[in-house]
Amino acid sequence: MNPQPLTFSQWGRSYLSVAPVTGVIVLACIAAWTATAVQSLSLSNSYYGSSLAHDWTLLGPLVADGGYARPLGAMFMHLDASHLMMNVLMLVFVGREVERAYGAGLYALSYLAGGLGSAAAVLAQDFDTPTVGASGALYAMMVLLVGVYRKQRLNLRAPLALILANLAYTFMSPGVSLWGHVGGLVTGVILLGALSLPHQTARWIAVVGVVLTSVGAVALGAGLWG
Fold first, then answer.
1. What is the per-residue pLDDT across 58-87, written as a single tens digit (0 to 9) for each?
2. Residue 46: how many CA atoms within 13 Å on its side-chain side?
3. CA-to-CA distance for 105 and 29, rounded, in angstroms?
């Protein structure tokens, strides 16, 4: 007897039981985009008519002027439905594997560090350019996926090809945040070193250290260039 296919709600519950942090991040991104669509009364041009999108955009002068939540909010904000879906699909598949391998707590901190490291790079190198999206944090997660494959003694071609394909897209596509992606990638490499330490306590201490360093880099970027 063939098993019945899962309904969407059953799949969602199953996914949340395996990767709860990733599920919450995905839902937060969808909720943020939905709010912008409602505010702007547009599905295709939701970003530009939304006060929430304005308040959650990473932009150096506004961060320096007291918008300290912007580097965090920008991680959940997207320009339009296609931008959202591209990042959410990547997060659903990559995030699940990374969260399962390293655990919910370390994964949540690593995702935060990746997003903030990405924001710090933008503030340092592209201060006056508005930036939104989860892709900076996703670049960090793609690097950690390489670590997952290495840990499980799997062929590294797939995760490395994923990173290279995304880097190629970054360099070839106008309007894509080069420094946001580079910042996430570099932070991911640092996180991979932290998560490769032999003892769990050492991994926690190291990852918390990366988070705090990312926070400091954001503050430095805003103050230095503001």
1. 999 999 999 999 999 999 999 999 999 999
2. 22
3. 19
Degrees (nearest 5) of the Cα angle 131, 32, 40? Answer: 85
- What count of other Cβ atoms lies within 10 Å of the Cβ of residue 224? 13
Alpha-carbon gap, residue 37 to 84, rounded angstroms: 12
Q: Which single residue is written with the structure tokens 């933008």?
A: 122
How far is the CA of 166 from the CAs of 59, 138, 151, 170, in angstroms? 23, 10, 23, 6
CATH fold group of domain 14-225 = Rhomboid-like fold (1.20.1540)
pLDDT tens digits, 8-43: 778 778 888 889 999 999 999 999 999 999 999 998
Among all chains, which residue has been given the structure tokens 């499980």?
A: 152
What backbone torsions phi and psi does residue 176 show, to the nearest 5 degrees? -90, 140
Specify the DSSP element, H or E, that contains 19: none
User: What is the reported pTM?
Assistant: 0.94
